[in-house]
Amino acid sequence: MKLHVLPDRTDSAAGNMAADFLLLRRYPEVAVRFRHYGWHRPACTFGYSQKIALVRGQLPALAGLGAGESAEQPLELCRRPTGGGVVDHREDWTYALVIPRGHPTEELRAVESYRLVHAALAAALRRQGTAAMLQPAETEPAAATGVCFQRAEPHDVIHAASREKIAGAAQKRNKHGLLFQGSIWRPAVRATVDWAEFREDFVRELAAALHVEPEATAWPDFAEHELEGLTEQYAAPEWTEAR
Question: If you classify domain 2-60+75-240 with CATH, what class do you get?
């Protein structure tokens, strides 16, 4: 099986969520697929099962506001198809990884697939001079309603010296396979990183861990109306405020 390394893209929060989900649902080949992407505007995403009132309650803290203060939030807000808490994308390095049905890793328990992907990520960061390690498995899990980078959960990537959380991810599994949406909080890296080199190192580490061969691949030819329609769905208030 191949690891298809897709071109980097920048989009709105809704556009990025739509593209990730289509990589899981409509990809034309049986292959592992990986992409790194950016954001058109300052954005936050939050897990599928999160309550919108609780999410909005976290936004003043992200904006640096004190208790009881309020302000018009400049952050684009979007509900993810995966789980997890609130993720601030203003200073992160974001990626998606899809492992198709039939690959051995897709059959692992969620905690084991999470550990495998983050072990590859930590190894790539160490190549860049960051003292990265995994949060021990015996750590008590964080509450799902919190801001993602305020506390590390088991098998998150942390800094070995500061114990600050560097990277986390959320997962969605369906009949097509397993989608990871991952984020590296760049201020926690505490090293000068060549992010282009890191991307290549991460791809190599993932390929080795998944026993697949990496291959640069063009963006798939999704039906334009399908991508546009799903982007509109993710941008709609009905999706954001679904619960």
Answer: alpha beta
